[in-house]
Every structure is written in structure tokens, then in C-alpha cells.
Amino acid sequence: MVFADPGEALARAEKVLGDRPPPLHASVAHQVIGIWQRDFGDLRLALTHLRRARDWAARADSAEREADVLGTLGVALVHAGRTRQGLEALGRGIERGTGHTRARVLFRRAYAWWVLGHHKEALEDVRRAITVLRQADDVIWTARALTLRATVHLALGAVKQANADFTAAETLWDTTGQEHDKADAVESRGLAAFRSGDVPAALRLFDEAEERYAKLGTPTFMLDIRRCEVLMAAGLPSEALAGADAAVKALDGIGGQSTRKAELLLAAARAARLADDPQTAIARAALAVRLFAGQRRTWWETHARLVLIEARHAAGRGSGRLVAEAATVADRLAALGAPAAPEASLLAGRIALDLGWTADAERHLAVAARSRRSGPPLARLTGWAAQALRAQAAGSARGVLEACRRGLDVLDDHRMTLGASELRARATAQGAELAALAQRASLVSGGPRRLLVWSERWRATALSTPPTRPPADPALLRGMTAYREIAARAEEARMDGRAVPALEREQRRLEREIRSRTLHMRGTAADGRGRFDVGGRFDVGRLLRRLSDSGDVQLVELAVLDGRVQVLLCGQGRVRRFEAGPLAAAETEAEHVQAGLRRLAHPGAQARLPVVEAAGRRLEELLLGPAAAHLGTGPLVVVPPGRLHRVPWALLPSLRDRVLSVSPSASGWLRARETAPPPGGRQVLVRGPGLATGGAEVPELAGRYGGARVLEEDDARVERVLEELDGAELAHIAAHGEFRADGPLFSSLRMADGPLIVHDFERLDRSPYRIILSCCDTARFASVGADELLGLVTALLPLGTAGVVACSAPVNDAAVVPLMLALHKGLDAGLSLAQALRDARASLPGDAVHRATGWAFSAFGAA
């Protein structure tokens, strides 16, 4: 009962002890309390009760009872870090027990071997146990043994064997009332899904297991460790670090298992390293190494040493000694049969390369490169990274490009199993090194054209295909409706000056629930062969032809190599390269410009205008350099890297008076240029609540577009707005915008019944062909992954929108009205969004407020 209903089992055991039981019953009761404390409470109390259970078993003169207790005590001692004593207790239990009881103790020793990382011994003991347990028709213990064997198989990378055992165990669990073990089976299936490369399924199954554990009131430290691993693979290391640290604190608070603490510290160290926090990684990994060593857990200690070496290398502590340590760890991992062995060889090779030890580097990288041919996607990615570094060291640009292409293809396959746009975007971080290696090699071997191809290869790839749409999930829709209601109530209370901590807590809870459910969505292949037609297929000739066909448009793509901006000027049948300034300096200047625009949004800041214009000149020098003199006077498309998304491009002197549009990638501009408007030409005008001008442009626009759908006041509710936006030719939304840096997919436009968020837009079958967002901060994005953007505009572009006008800074509401009216006047005359926006800026008064308002808006796409 201790696993079927832990609370009830504990209460009954305590009641038994209160009734002066005979020795046999006292032994059982103390053992139950010991198991409960071992797995769900204070490990020190667990050891006290289990020793009493052993003593009462001896008094009862029952060898079988004593053997069973020794098995439980042995596991508890191992979890307490007393490995030698634990194994001795388990050995005595096997000697004392016979038949069925002995098989149960064998199972427990197999579990202890797994905890310690002795997988060969674990498989041998559990195999012997399963044979006897099946003969005894012991369904529960057979299922437990199958689950354990599957888990050991996973640790050794044998996913197929693990899945077979998990399936057999789950069939048995369905015939029992063991709710905790059933939850554990769901968790185990999640682990198997992850090892098979299915991150969304792993997250879904882990969430289901967590719900089951919550009903039982049991802690979930093993689940926390596994979820951290999946979050790291999904590109969410900061979340994994926070989760691991919180679990360590909770474990310390109850005096829990020392073994679990060490594993959580290892997970935290890995997460910190991936989150570019090497000092935290060093601290967590060093403590994990000490704990594992004290627990005699060689498998785990070796993995922790790998992370410690990686963190020291990331902190700039490369040395010959570190190469030797990495090589030793690689040898130990290989001897243990650990799938992480290639990572250690890759690390040794990297450090050796940094030191100029090419022969040593080649030896280690060659070993790591073997993993490129088989295994899960991220293991193959390790192999291709090693192969690319080998080719670079050998001076083979062609070899570098081939290895990078193959590695990024592997990552494409993995990324396209992810349905959520956030996970797709974040997963690209794992290919950033390959993309950078390829860019350097392409510049050396192929010049500007090849650099453009590789700049495009890993830029804005999350926008290359629409996210998986979630309208069929009723629970998600209910959660989004509840979120909207709570957010609207909280906003209303804040406007009244009332504190709303309870509403804000509920809003955050609903945000976590919505995000969790969207991360469960699995991607589907679009071409019928298991992968999307993305990446590696960018055609420079097609781009140049389309630019020429569009009226001698030029496209400026900004790549970043070794911290400097490379300007690729495409047009007139050729690609030219110019080197501009440092990216870091450009980012700093862009922030200064944004601060200036915020000030200019308020009357009385006229004196700041020359300062902002001077910053614009400095920004142009840093971003365009000598290329500015070769832009000509025709239309221009700017393709910036993700870290420069907040640049108000119309402020730059060379771009100020010209037709200008922005695109996340050249491929994205081509898709937008070739997107046809929907039939019917339907226009939708939306006016949200609380605008200083009341959305004054909307009534005038309604008169201009006679048949437009106008949604305002109570009609401007989220579901109604989405219904009208779907498939529209033109949409204009006047509403307060909010960018959420802490959760970009919760960036929103305020409607009558609450926020219209990015997740809502992703439910559209087809977003409007052209959409104008006349509100603050709608063109702000979060830069994630390798070179990806998350925000309102980027949610629309993969869903059929060919052009967007949006704003990257707070603006003056009153000054927006004449800009919008002039913009629509140009559209009515047949101009594109970029042409109409250029003319609309020119029509505004010359004061600082109006000029800053014009600069803050950009046209995205090609419509």
C-alpha cells in the first residue's frame, strides 16, 4: 500500500505500532514507515525505522522477513551515500532469503547497482529476479523489475530494448491498483520518448506523471532530474537550472536522499553551462563530484567531471592538464558504455585545438566523430561538430561545409518534431557553432555568395514553417479563456489603483499551464518523407532575379562573424561584401537610440532631436560602414541579425527618405514576395479599449473602406476578432500593445475582453495578408536560439501574412493618427506597405514628436 496510497499506508503503520504489535507486525510497520521516509521524507528517520524493522524481524525469528527488510535498508543506505554498508546489507538479505523473497532483494540490489551506475551488475541481478518473480506470478514486483531493466537499458542507450520492457510493465500495471507505480510508468515512458528524440511527448508524459504524483502527495525529485534533461535538450537551460535548484532546496528541507541531491546538482551544473553561466556550473559540478565520489558512484562521478571540465573550458581555463582530464573522462565513459563518451572526446579535441595541439586534437576529434552515423539526433550532432572541427584544423573548407550541412540537417529533423514555435526557435542554439564554422569557411572558400547562403542556412528558420496549430485542444482553449478573463480583471484593478497579488498569481499559473500545453505539441513533416523542405536550399540566383523583377530592389543582409558586422549587398545581379563595425557597439548604440525615441514621444523634448539624429549617424556607420555609399536610391530590404531587431532603420540617414522594408531573412522576404493575397479583398478594422485618442483613425478608415468589418467596444472581443482576421486581405488594429520580455508568446494587444496574445494568432488558419498594428512595442521581439525572434510580428509571418507595419518603441498616440491615415491613403492608391509608410512619414509635421513617431514604425515583409 505504501506506493498505492502512501498517506494511508503511513497512517495504518503508525496505528499498528500504537497497538503494541507482535514482533513480526512491528517489523512490517517500521519497514513501511522507513520506505515512506526514504522515498518521500527524511532519510535519517528512514534509517532509524528500517533498523528497528530489522531488529524486530530478528526477534520474530523470521529469516524471510529479515531478508526483506535488509533489502529495503540496503537501498536506503545507498541513497544516504553509505554505499559499502548498503551493498553489505543487500548481500546479507540475498543470503538470508529464499525463492520469492530472495528475488525481491535481488531486484533491490539491481536498483542499487543502477543508482551507483554499475549497469552490467544491475542487468544481471534484475534478470535473475524477473525469472523467479514471473514464476511466482508476482505481478507488481515483475512490473517493477521490468521498469528497472528498461531504465538501465536507457542509461546504456538501448532504446529499443527499453521500450519493450516499458510496454510489458505498463500492461501489468494496468491490472493493479498501484497508483504510484503507475505514475512512475508514465514518467518512464516520458524518459523513453526523450531518448527516442521526441521532446514534446516527453514533456507531455512528465506533466501527466506530475499530476498523478500530486494526487498522491509524493515528492518528484527523480522526475525533476529527468525534466531538467529534457528542458536542456529543448533549448530551455535557464528553466532547467531554476527547476534543479528549487528541487535541491526542497530536498534539503526534508532531509532527503543524498544520492538524489548529487544528481540534481549535476543537472543544475549542466543547465548552468548551457545557460552561459560557467561559474555556477563549476560550483554545482564540483559539489556533485565530491558527493558522487563519497557515494562510490563512479558512473555518475565521471559524468559530473565531464561537466566540470566543460565549465572550466567555457570560463577560459584551457590548459594541457584540462586536455588530459577530458581524455581520461572520455576513456572512462567509453569503458562504462556511457553514451556521453563522444562529448568528452569532442571536449578534449576542442581544448587541444585552442592550444594549437593539432595532432592531439585530431586523435580526440576522430573518436568523437564516430558518433555522427548513429544514435539520437543530439548525439549525431556531436559527431558532426567533431568532424567539422577536424576539417577546419586540416584546412579543408569543403570538409567543414559538408560536415556543417550534415549536422544542421540532423538538427532540422529534430527541430521539426517540435510543434511549438518557441521550442523550434530555441532548439536552433544547438546548431549555432556549426553555422558559425560554415560562415567562416564559406567566406574563405566561396566569397560573398557562399557567405549569404550560409547566413541564410540558420537564420529565422523557426519562421520557415507554421507552428502546429492547437485549436483541437479543448483544455488549452479553456485555459486561454480563463487567462484572458483573469488578465482583464487584473488590468482593470490596476487602473483603479488596487493591488492584485492574488489575480497576478493566478495569471502566472495560467500562463505556465498554457505554455506547458503548447510545448506538448508535436511537429509533423510537410513533404511526406519525414522532414520539412527547409535549410540548405537557399538559391542566390532566385533571390537576385526576384529583386530585379521587383523594380531593382536591393537587399542588405547583415551577418556577424567573430563579433563584427558583415554587410552583404544583394542586387543588380551580384552580391558584394563590406565589413562594418563591432556588433556589441551597434547594440549599445541601438539602445541609446531607443531611449531617445522614448523621450521624443512626449511633447517638450525637441532639444533631444539632434542627439537622436547624431546617434542614428553613428549607428549607420557601425551597421552599414562603407556599404552605405553603394545603396543607390531604389527600394531597400534590410535583413538584420536577431540581436539588432530593435534598430529603427528609418532613422539611419541613408535609409531615411527611401522605400524601406525589414525581413527576418532573405528567404522570408522571398516567401512574402511570392505570397498571393486572398480572394475577396476583405478589410477588418479593430479598435481596442483605453487608447488616449480612442483609436481616432478607425472611424475615418471605416468611411474610406466602405465594406470593412469594424470591431469596436464589445464587438472587439478576442474570438470575434480572430474570426474576422482569419483570411482577411487587410487588417488594421488600433489597440494597446504590450511586449513581454519574460514570455514573448504572451505579448499582447488589449481587446474588450482581455489580451489577444501570440498563442491566439497561432490558431489562425491564415493570418491577414497585410496587417497594420498602430500601437506601441508591437515590433519588439525576444532574440532566442541561434538567430531567432519571438513576438507578435514573427507569429504572423509564417501564417500567410506578407506584410506588417508595426512599432518598435513607445509612441505618441496623437501623432500616430495622422501617420496611419496617410499610410492608408497610400495603400488606397495602390502602393506597397513600405512605399506608403515612406510617403506617410514625409507628410507629417517636422516637429520632434511626429518625426520620432515616423521613425519608430517599420514595414516588415514584402506586401
From TrEMBL:
<dbReference type="InterPro" id="IPR024983">
    <property type="entry name" value="CHAT_dom"/>
</dbReference>
<dbReference type="InterPro" id="IPR011990">
    <property type="entry name" value="TPR-like_helical_dom_sf"/>
</dbReference>
<dbReference type="Pfam" id="PF12770">
    <property type="entry name" value="CHAT"/>
</dbReference>
<dbReference type="InterPro" id="IPR019734">
    <property type="entry name" value="TPR_rpt"/>
</dbReference>
<feature type="domain" description="CHAT">
    <location>
        <begin position="614"/>
        <end position="856"/>
    </location>
</feature>
<protein>
    <submittedName>
        <fullName>CHAT domain-containing tetratricopeptide repeat protein</fullName>
    </submittedName>
</protein>
